[in-house]
Amino acid sequence: MLDATVLERVGIATASTALALGIGLAIAAIAGYDSVQFARQLLVGALGSERAIARTLRGTTLFVLTGVAVAVAFRAGVFNIGVQGQFVIGGFTTVVSILWLASFVPAGTVGGIVLMLFGTVAGVVAGGLYGALPGVMKAYGDANEIITTIMLNFIAIGLVGWLVSGPLGDPEATATRTRRLPENVELPQFVFGDPNLSVVGVLVVLGVVGVTAAVMARTQFGYDMVTSGHQDTAATYSGVDAKRMVISTMALSGMIAGLTGALFVIMIQGYYTDPSGIGNYGFDAIAVSLLAANNPLGVVPAGLLFGGLESAGSHVQINSDIPVQLIDGIVGLVVLFVAVPELFRMVAHRTGLGGDGE
Questions:
Q1: What is the mean pLDDT of the chain?
Q2: What is the mean pLDDT of residues 207-213?
Q3: Range 126-138 average pLDDT
Q4: Are 295 and 6 contacting, i.e. CB atoms less than 8 angstroms apart?
Q5: Which of 98, 207, 248, 304 has the most CB atoms around it within 10 Å of its CB?
Q6: Residues β-bridged to residue 273
């Protein structure tokens, strides 16, 4: 595993997924459910209709972007466990900024485009700043970024939840949420009839993946970022400010998470609600990135798998008596089987037990 190629890692991920699905079907059979029916429901729920495909792609867009946010930090040797908080801050800032600017912008398509661009930029900046904060604490205070990012998740969820239920909530709404975004703030739909999915959003996701992969692999900034994370002494010797690069890494990761939040509220939600109930995309992104071996390009198929499982889970819950918790168990098995060889790789690397070429 020390010298595993991209194809070998793809093979490991594929085998892990197949094994997890097999065990999940076996558990369903042991529990007294029809495993064949379970497999069919999974397939139909993920890809069985245009509606199912749209639902899968909708989840995939969020899993891919948050997965890339995690992968950027992990590839640079920085453990950003706070993508969920950055995702929440970015999405909330997008809604607030659009609602504020809407009174100054004329209605219509052009006004909607201006509002979406302004809100997206605001969300990206907010997510980046929230990501940079633990980077600053790590670089200049030697704070453990795992602890600080986890704590910042709770702070973001608690703060936004209070604002949504109080000062910035919609007093006329029966549910806890902000005012809705203006009607002209929506992405165009060309292919699917699902009001919560736009091909534009999918193209944005693919563009971010391509640009991030190119930056990480083809630019001096990407090289310095990875070097600073894994070999800060060598980076400093070569003239790179390792502390600044750690902050830049966390800021870039947070910016991508903030972009995810902006896409979530513009394409899917249309307002902001209690963040404790919007989904754990930032937490699930850790598993997505792990499945992709922290490769931005590999996050796309990994995110598609998680999007399909999420879609299938919704379908199974509605159309069968099979407990949806089996879906969560399958996801956990996938992560476990992928993590085991990675764990051996890390142990071998740190202890030298693998030797050269073994």
A1: 87
A2: 96
A3: 97
A4: yes
A5: 98
A6: 177
Distance CA 298, CA 288 (A): 9
Q: Could you give the CA distance from residue 92 to residue 103 in angstroms, rounded to a whole number?
A: 18
What Cα–Cα distance (Å) separates residue 266 from each residue in 257, 291, 329, 358?
Answer: 14, 28, 31, 50
What six digits make up the tokens of 212?
Answer: 């991030």
- Tell me the H-state helices in the chain: 6-30, 35-47, 50-75, 83-101, 109-141, 145-165, 199-218, 220-230, 232-237, 242-263, 281-291, 299-319, 325-351
CA-nearest of 347, 311, 350 to 331 is: 311
CA-to-CA distance for 110 and 53, rounded, in angstroms?
30
Report phi then psi at 79, rounded to 5: -95, 95
CA distance 197 to 171: 28
| CA 79/CA 44 separation, integer angstroms | 36
How far out from the chain centre does Cα 336 lie? Answer: 19
What is the dihedral angle through the alpha carbons of 237, 240, 215, 56, rounded to the nearest 10 degrees? 90
Look-up of token digits 């394409």? 267
**Cβ atoms within 10 Å, residue 121:** 16
- 142 — alpha (psi -120 to 50), left (phi > 0) or beta? left
Q: pLDDT, tens digit, for every residue of 11-66?
A: 777 777 788 888 888 988 898 888 888 888 889 999 988 899 999 999 999 999 99
Residue 273: what are its φ and ψ, rounded to 5°?
-120, -170
Q: What are phi and psi of 76, to 5 degrees?
A: -90, 10
Instruction: Tokens for 176, please give them.
Output: 């806890």
The structure tokens 């991030």 sit at: 212
As a whole number of angstroms, the distance between CA 160 and CA 85 comes to 10
Encoded tokens for 166: 């109080």
The span from the CA of 192 to the CA of 178, in Å, is: 27
Residue 273, classed as helix, strand or coil, is strand
Q: Which amino acid does the sequence have at 348?
A: A
